[in-house]
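Hi U.,

Before I forget, here's the chain from the pilot set. I'm dumping it here mostly so it's searchable later in email.
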Amino acid sequence: MVRVDGVQAFLRVDPGWEGPHPAKHSVRLVHHLAQRGAPVPRIRLLRPRVLSLAWNDYTISMETVLPGSSPSARDLSVLPAAGENLGRIHQSILDFEPPRSSRPVHAYVRPILQLAAQREALTVREPFEALSAHIEANCADVLETDIAWLFCHGDVGCCNVIEDRGHVGYTDFGRAAYLPALVDLLMPRFRWLMGDTECDRGFLTVSEAAAFIRGYERVRPLTDKDRAAIPPIWAAYYAEYLSFLWVKWGEARDRGRHGLFEICRRINNLVEEALEMGQELVRELDQIRR
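Structure:
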């Protein structure tokens, strides 16, 4: 922790991986958002016109500290405001690189399901392959529909949200990636509570997830195409994350706190549940709209 011009800031050192989105790219993204008034930390210059520095295999940057703390799993009243400010972030991100564009739903769904089924060390592949075939058979028209893509946060959950007297900001853009905007909007249902060590629940209920989305729609209303794309986008995201957790948690996946997420059961029921969970969310949103 350091102080710059009387403001608290973190001197942050991130891995300088050379993937499609290296750490210095996330630094530029956060700076872009802050310059447009989005609820994110501000990046302080390390040198004139320099936002980050390379040091061996690391990227060094400095960002201001948002006031407040992460919301508690016992108080989900922050969800509408968190959704609304995610909408503001998405609005501010539209002219970031790459420029605003649309791509078909299948450009996300097919590769992400392939990743889920082929992840190294995954020994249960059949449910993921069956889900892929199920989506192809039941969502053929939706898969060809163009929806908005942008540079998403990529890790929306309570541990990356800071709340201070009703004001909500977002931190930790290290997983930012070019994805359908819906991915940021849908992932909180499964990820929101994961970062709270006091959590005694697996994931958000459909009404809680809908409250987050309705907050988002105050700023960026979903189109009819967006709403139609929710079930396959959710199903693909959900399946890939189940695959990731199955490998990551290993033998502990169904014990202790991990057991709240019922990874094995959910994988076994992917075909029956994944699309239906997305459709359930659409029905909830339609009920709210009426």
